[in-house]
TrEMBL record, chain A:
Domain Electron transfer flavoprotein alpha/beta-subunit N-terminal: 26-219
Cofactor note as given: Binds 1 AMP per subunit. Binds 1 FAD per dimer.
Keyword Transmembrane helix set for record: no
Organism annotation: Linnemannia gamsii
CDD domains noted in UniProt: ETF_beta
Cellular compartment(s): Mitochondrion matrix
Protein name: Probable electron transfer flavoprotein subunit beta
Automatic annotation (TrEMBL), chain B:
Keyword Mitochondrion: no
Organism: Linnemannia gamsii
The protein's name in its UniProt record: Isobutyryl-CoA dehydrogenase, mitochondrial
UniProt cross-references to Pfam families, sorted A to Z: Acyl-CoA_dh_1, Acyl-CoA_dh_M, Acyl-CoA_dh_N
Cofactor(s) annotated in UniProt: FAD
Record gene name: ACAD8_1
Oxidoreductase listed as a keyword: yes
Domain Acyl-CoA dehydrogenase/oxidase N-terminal stretches: 35-145
Amino acid sequence: MSNLRILVATKRVVDYAVKIRVNAAGSAVETANVKHSMNPFDEIGTEQAIQIKEALVKAKTGTAEVIVVSCGPAKSQETLRTALAMGADRAIHVESDEELQPLAVAKLLKAIVEKEKPDMVILGKQAIDDDSNQTGQMLAGLLNWPQATFASKVELGDKLMTVTREVDGGVETVKAPLPAILTTDLRLNVPRYASLPNIMKAKKKPLAKFTVADLGVDIKPRLQTLKIAEPPKRQGGKLVESVDDLVDKLKNEAKVL
Amino acid sequence: MASLLTISSRRVPTRLGRLASAVSHQTRHYSVIDHDQKELQNLARAFADKEFAPKMQEWDENQHFPIDVLRRGAELGFGGLYTREDVGGSGLGRLETSVIFEALSTGDVSTTAYITLHNMCSWIIDEFGTEAQRQKYLPQITSMEKLASYCLTEPGAGSDAAGLTTTAVKKGSHYVLNGSKAFISGAGASDVYLVIARTGGSGPKGTSCFIVEKGFKGLSFGKKETKLGWNSQPTRAVIMEDCEVPVENLLGAEGRGFSIAMKGLNGSRINIGSCSLGAAQASIEEAVGHVKVRKQFGKVLADFQNTQFKLADMATSLLSSRLMIRHAARMLDQNHPNAASYCAMAKVHATDESFKICDDSLQLHGGYGYLKDYKINVYLRDSRVHRILGGANEVMRMAVSRTLLV
């Protein structure tokens, strides 16, 4: 009988469909009064954890407890509620209004891992606001756990996970003993909609809160953003007469050769 | 009537995109819907964006009734939104229901309108049926394994619904029904038909409500109507020729038919109005998208004051409609004695105003709005009928004036 505890990390980000712009001060992307939702790769992570639980229950070989965690301001609870509505069992909110960079989040998650002792931690490969692609890897480093990133397929064995990864050269399969870190890529699964009954039930599921101080973590940013600017406005195209002309333009105007 | 004027300033629901951002910032602390209701709205909008919107034009063009997609929605709970949970319903209130239908309509008005009619039938059985009837029909209706249609209107009885002439005569273990119903949404495809027929004398108190099933002897359907809009749902006559209905399929007591029908229609006023809101919302979004890219006289249409003022007026009109619909929904939820009049006023206002908004949006599209390549024509055509059915807006005015002149 395997009873797994799976911790899923989620982040509340600006919705992928929003046309973002730089704020008036030129210091950051404008997030006030802009639609937010769960990071799409984290939705995939939540879905994967729930699928693992459902597979265990269906095969009658055990069960899983899916705990979803998010680090951020009070509104992060919306994201947690969405995950609970999809089918997670309980939620943890690490509340902070400060800027949380990947290393800080990894340290906070490490503190949660030490409390909850999960068999797996599932994270999205990156958040679509900062595209860092660091938190899962840093968490593995801090915990000294094995990691399988950019997962497009996961199979669980006895205290073991076999993961197919999408990498630049193609597809790679790795095996890692549990406990381990998994980060999700796009083709791992298609997240379910929360159903209306589950949205109502989610209100009653437990949501625990911690502050950064409770966990004793130093979250001071190590990276400083120097400048944020919109990409240059798209110029009109030009027709070229010959291949030589094209090469000349690529070399001397676009400067990509 | 003074209570009509006491609605305080409320926040524009965030679905109006950037238009709303400015307004919602100012009225941050007031919200018509709470956080839980926003979750429901998010789900419905996500479903509409993904399952309805890409197919809306195709379903309209091909008159395709998307039963498989309806059932996917039913899996999420859309099949019995305000039906009780023990039979598979979602047990929500009318306000949540309105929010959900409005969000679904942004993806496809016609299909959502069908869902609202199915929901009304589900509620009628839930509210007025015996326990045996509830358990027999509702689990399959809430899952949309069985589809339901509401049959009140007849060729000779539209606005004058109480003048209906379909008869139901008790003969031993059956009622025998004779007559025909017109303009029935879902007819032919549905499995369950709620039919109002005359069991007694003239007028509303001589009518009763029956659960008629496809396959009952004597039940047949007319040809599929060709309509201006609402093309993703079939509309047919329902014909009863010595149609035999078991006595246990009488819903509620004899003589209660019209009363049951009217109570169902109160909710339907909110539902149809909500579908209009969704059409208007989507039309504004479409217009905003277009005027930002279309250029004339050296600038985008969005830079002309006419365009700006027009959009502002459209948004203001939508807000007024939305507030009235949600206010009336709340009154229904609270069983307010005047709820019916507020539902009537909200229905008239929302359906009239939303059609104008769709029309204004088409105008902002210029010639492109007239091409079926663009979606706006579907919203316009679909929302046109909302001024006619569910109680024509003229009938709504009759109902409201009665309460004023009492």
